[in-house]
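Protein modeling request. Please complete all fields; requests missing the sequence field cannot be processed.
Requester role: graduate student
Desired output: 3D structure, token encoding
Chains: 1
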Amino acid sequence: MNNNLLLKKDLTAEELAMVQSEVNRKAKSKGIAYALWWFTGLIGGHRYYAGDIGIGIGMTLTGGGFGIWTLIDAFFIGKRIEEKNEELEYQVIQQVLSFHKSAV
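Delivered output (104 residues):
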């Protein structure tokens, strides 16, 4: 979500602080995702953590795609967590902007 930067440039310092605080509070950790992959990869624990419930269920039912899906995920977990955190930041920015508009 490259437009997060464009959206943030129009925010005040107070609004930016609100966004950053909320994102820090709700953001997913790559370290936790990798730990979950290591210990619960075959049942998709890292996918549940990332909010990918459908894929998590698929992994649970197939034993991580018989281990293959789990192995492949090792290379994509970090990028997926970054994407989820960018989506979260976008949602928070939108909430702050809508709150600001309704307050004016």
